[in-house]
Amino acid sequence: MSKVFIASIRDRDLVDSVFLVKEKIMAMAKNGKPYMTLRLMDKSGEIEGRVWDNVDQLSASFDKDDFVAIRSKASVYLGKMQLIISELVRISEDKVNLADFLPESDRTIAEMEAELEALVETFSDQHLKALMKAFFDDPSFMALYRTAPAAKGMHHVYLGGLLEHSLAVSRLVDAIVPLYADLNRDLLVAGALLHDVGKVREMTYLRSFDYTDEGKLIGHITIGVEMLQERISTIPGFPPELGMLLKHMLLSHHGQYEYGSPKRPKTVEATILNYLDDLDSKINGIRTHIRKEGENQGRWTSYHRLYDRYFYKESYSGEEECREVADELMVPEPEPVPLPVAPRAAEAERKSGDTVRKGFSNNPFEGLQKNLDLF
Question: Which of 7, 190, 214, 296 keeps 20 to 30 A from 273, CA to CA?
Answer without folding.
Answer: 214
